[in-house]
Design a protein that fits this description.
Blueprint lengths: L8 H8 L7 H14 L3 H5 L3 H4 E2 L2 E2 L2 E4 L11 E4 L2 H18 L22 H14 L9 H15 L2 H8 L4 H7 L4 H10 L2 H13 L6 H10 L5 H8 L8 H8 L1
Antiparallel strand pairs: 1-2, 3-4
Length: 255
Amino acid sequence: MKGTRPLDNTEIRKVAEAFNGTFTVRNRNLFMLGVSVGGRISELLALKVGDVWQNGKPVKDLLFARSIVKGGEVSRAVPVNVDGREAIEALIAWHAEQYADIDATRPLFPSRKGRGTKPMTRIAAHDVLKPAFELAGLNGKLGTHSLRKSYAQRLYEQTNDIYAVQEMLGHKSVVTTQRYLGVNYASVRAASEAMSIHAESNSSAKTLSSVNDASDDELLIELLRRGYDVTRLLQKSESEQPFQLSEEKTASRFV
């Protein structure tokens, strides 16, 4: 979904706890696997049990085969971290309970209909994710593509290697990856809070409380920032007299 935003780790944990209903395990772990491996929603829904569960354990490297990759041009392998492996284990246990067996050819994320013979649709995936986002108290534009963007953003922040992100996402061009990555949403939120008039007031209070520890240069910069005429002080400094402000005068000027 164009314009959807990524989630940070705190938001991911909140969403993971927000699923409920009969298919909670399937839905929660679609979300968790998605944010852990960065597959397109179409690629995730095309996975079979045998793609993620081999030799009685979850795979450590997930292969998105050419047959399910967008455009069908090239397959790609993505490492599966501990969150992804736990999601796979939970899904396999759910399959065993739900269908009484582990069929390697069964869709990993089966539809509610057909006794597991057909995969979920993209619309169904959207419909189970949307209420979880809402219950988690998140806002902004969120959708199935937020899973892939969350993976991409977090991987880039860990590696600072856009070419690694490009390869893991399967993008043809790094330009696509550049457009794909957003700013660090949590950092922007913190910066936005810091811009508020309340934050500015707190910053000023901090400056006042620490003014006695400030150097002459810092005091001069602070006075300039606040619009005071410091010409007389500079002239006094140039006459080889130290630039000094008494505690009383400094405090009165900063009020």
